Amino acid sequence: MEIKTHISVKNLNIWYGQHQAINNISIDIPDKKITAIIGPSGCGKSTLLKSFNRLIELQDGAKVSGKVLVDGEDIYDPKVEVTHLRKKMGLLSQRPQVLPVSIYENVAYGPRIHGIKDKKKLDEIVQRYLIESNLWDEVRGRLNSSASKLSIGQQQRLCLARGLAVEPEVILGDEPTSALDPLSAECIEQRLLELKNKYTIVLVTHILRQAKRLADYIIFLYLGNLIEHGPAEEVLNNPKYLKTKNYLEGKFIEEPKINKELNLKRTAYPNNFVTAKLALGDLEFGHIVKIIVDNESSAIEIPKAIEHEGHKILEVRKLNQNDWEIVVQKHNGGYVI
Amino acid sequence: MNIRIIKENLVRRTMFGLCLFVFSLVFLMAFGLYQKSKPILAIISLKDLLFSSIWHPTQGHFGLSSFIAGTFWVTAIAVIIAVPLSILTAIYVSEYASKRVRSFAKPIIDLLAGISPIIFGVWGIIAVVPLVRDYLMPFFTKRFPFFPFVSDNYTGFSALTGGIVLAVMTFPIIISVVEEVLRTVSFEIREASLSLGATKWQTIKYVVLKKARPGIIAAVILGVSRAFGETMAVLMVAGCALGVFPKSIFDAAYPLPALIANTYGEMMSIPLYDSAVLLAAFILLIITALFNMAGWGILLHIERKQACG
Ligand SMILES: Nc1ncnc2c1ncn2[C@@H]1O[C@H](COP(=O)(O)OP(=O)(O)O)[C@@H](O)[C@H]1O
Ligand SMILES: [Mg+2]
Predict the structure, then answer these.
(1) Is residue A22 within 8 Å of residue A59, measured between CB atoms?
(2) Are A125 and A165 in contact (CB under 8 A)?
(3) Is B265 helix (H, G, I), strand (E, B) or coil?
């Protein structure tokens, strides 16, 4: 089955002042699926998420390079109207942020600022999205009372309704259940599962079980780098690389100790593979070599071929526009083909 | 025996005592003023004192109404000018200005707040008085020859002049408090509004200002309270002519604080004079207190409404 791409990230770099929070990430986010961004705290999950609706621009000193294409359109193009883009992207934040007005006005806020004035139409919108976010039954009798009186869980559902009311295409969630009690969290999860037929959902979470329950697609970030991505079953049950494996098992993630570096730029596959193979032959069992190549086909083929030789691929990572890094651990000598 | 607990008790009692002292000062002051103004209240009815505009101490006429009206004129003009301008300025500084502009603006505003009133007074005489005399008054009396713009006071020393100077003096207080209040509105709630596709101005108008409203009201109360009591600068530019009941913004105004500062301690041989002036002080205290209470009442009402809808 062909997977349609909704958001396409190309060579994205984000800096906060001198600190680089996102390091050359390229990735496609599938349409009408739940994509979970996982990774330890501070690895750049929120930063990546906020680059999708350009909220990142509000941060002091934030600088973005690269492209984010939504429906094929580069959102960082100066011609793009940012309010129009943000209307396409609903946001659920970590703590529900209700506006200091009534429940009704919270949901009607979005449609109002986009020009809907007709009271009957607004009533209808408010009811429809409160139902869709499963809050209607609890608040139908007190739509005009203050939203801040609701429980945190209800507030988050209200925020969901408010986001849906502007008819977005994408729902961005930044750990939307982390401030909620288990029941409310489950309620939100249930909503998201139902909504994924209509919306593309990108969900930042540091709860692995939540990713397991919800995600169709996983993106694993570590220190601003894209370590691994792919269909949820593959990444969660059968991760390719060491860091992913360690993270999923709750182990400490450490940088592998590199015993040798091999610069194979400006050579093509399979010549560079032969060089790598010879170098691995000289290495002690269990030692680690880092190979740098400068074309994508090598970055795809060399790991396969090396794995075939019985060695272990610890990591494959894009360094910048051109270069890729492949980290290989020599087999332990237990078996040689 | 536990020294820590003794210390704890000692600290608590001392603080309670100090707190009590400060509170009681206010009441003692009010009580003292009331005691001192009793003699005149015993002879002339409060109604005459409040509503008569005849001030002839030597003949025993102590009508305070023109002074009360003067106070209201000057304060009202100051508030009408200062509140919108300073709130807009605060919005600009806190929401739109770049970091660099803000780092300039803040110290300048604070500097403005620290300047001595007498300097504002001098500035009023050399800059605002001619402005009112040569431009504002001819313009308004020609274009709008009706209340409250008609006046036969062509000196430029007027309620409007006092109001303008007072407005400039209250700017920094209101700006700096409002700016602070706006900055307490959380970044996340702005994000929430912006993420729905709202523009920055929509976000400010519907979310930030709404959240900040109690604080803004508090800032205005603070500013107006200052305007009520400010003496020196107003005294220098507002005209302070006796025997005029101000009916126009271009009439000379003689606010209560100016009256007290100008006359208390002089001509004490005139019977009841000092009692009348202290009554003026008592009235000023009451007006300010009432205004403050009304302000805080509104604030409380809004806060309660925001809290429970
Ligand atoms: N406004 C900011 N200014 C400077 N550094 C920031 C800012 N926001 C985040 N960072 C840094 O960027 C990195 C990524 O942050 P974030 O995207 O919030 O991580 P996550 O959501 O995965 O916990 C962290 O190291 C964090 O300290
Ligand atoms: Mg985060």
Answers:
(1) no
(2) yes
(3) coil
Q: State which amino acid sits at residue B94.
A: S
Pick from B188, B197, B309: CB nearest A97: B188
Closest Cα to atom 26, ligand 1: which residue?
A: A42
Instruction: Identify whether B251 is part of a domain.
Output: yes
Cβ-based neighbours of B209, under 8 Å, separated by 6 or more: B91, B216
Tokens of A329: 């651990």
On whether residue B89 sits in a domain, the answer given is yes
Question: Which residues of A fall within a CB distance of 8 Å from B307?
Answer: 146, 148
Residue located nearest, by CA, to atom 27 of ligand 1: A42
pTM, to two decimals: 0.84
Q: Does residue B213 sit within a domain?
A: yes
Is the CB of A58 inside a 6 Å radius of any atom of ligand 1? no
pLDDT digits (tens, 9 = 90+) for B126-153: 999 999 999 999 999 888 888 888 888 8
Name residues whose C-beta falls within 8 Å of residue B134's C-beta, 6 or more positions apart in sequence: B156
Q: How far is the CA of A324 from the centre of ligand 2 (A)?
A: 27
Residue A252 CA to ligand 1 centre (angstroms): 20
Q: Is residue B13 part of a domain?
A: no
CA B196, CA A86: separation in Å to the nearest integer? Answer: 6
DSSP bridge pairs for A319: none
Three-state SS for A38?
strand
Q: Give B98's contacts in chain A (Cβ within 8 Å).
A: none
Confidence of residue A157 (pLDDT cuts 50, 70, 90): very high
* Tokens of residue A284, six digits: 């002690």
| Burial state string for A177-194 with b = 16 or more CB within 10 A and e = fewer than 16 | bebbeeebbebbbebbee
- CA distances A312 to A240, A306, A315, Å, are 10, 8, 9
- Of B271 and A66, the structure prediction assigns the larger pLDDT to A66
In this predicted model, what pLDDT tens digit does every residue of B20-36 receive, in sequence order?
A: 999 999 899 999 999 99
Rounded to the nearest angstrom, the minimum Cα separation between A201 and chain B is 15
- The answer to whether the beta carbons of residues B244 and B252 sit under 8 Å apart is yes
Residues in chain B: 309
Q: Is A92 on the interface with B (CB under 8 A)?
A: no
CA of A244 to the centre of ligand 2 (A): 19
Number of domains in chain B: 1
Q: What is the CATH number of the domain that holds B275?
A: 1.10.3720.10
Tokens 């009520």 found at:
B228
Chain B residue with CA closest to A115: the answer is: B198
**pLDDT for position A337:** 46
Give the tokens for residue A305. 């071929």
Note the pLDDT of residue A79.
93
DSSP annotation string for A146-177: BGGGS-HHHHHHHHHHHHHTT--SEEEEESTT
Q: Could you tell me whether strands A62-70 and A5-16 are parallel, antiparallel, or unpaired per DSSP bridges?
A: antiparallel
Q: Which of A95, A99, A102 sits opposite B309 (nearest CB)?
A: A102
Report the candidate in B2, B83, B73 with the shortest Cα–Cα distance to residue B258: B73
Cα B14 versus chain centre, distance: 34
Evaluate: CB of A187 within 6 angstroms of ligand 1: no
Domains of chain A (ranges; CATH) run: 5-241 (3.40.50.300), 260-329 (3.30.110.40)
Query: What's the number of CA atoms in the CB half-sphere (13 Å) around residue B121?
Result: 14
Give the domain range for residue B186: 49-308
Q: Which helix (H) or strand (E) holds A263?
A: strand A260-263
Contact A185, A94 (CB under 8 A): no
Contacts 24+ apart (CB under 8 A), B125-130: B125/B236, B125/B237, B128/B161, B128/B164, B128/B165, B128/B237, B129/B155, B129/B156, B129/B157, B129/B161, B129/B237, B130/B156
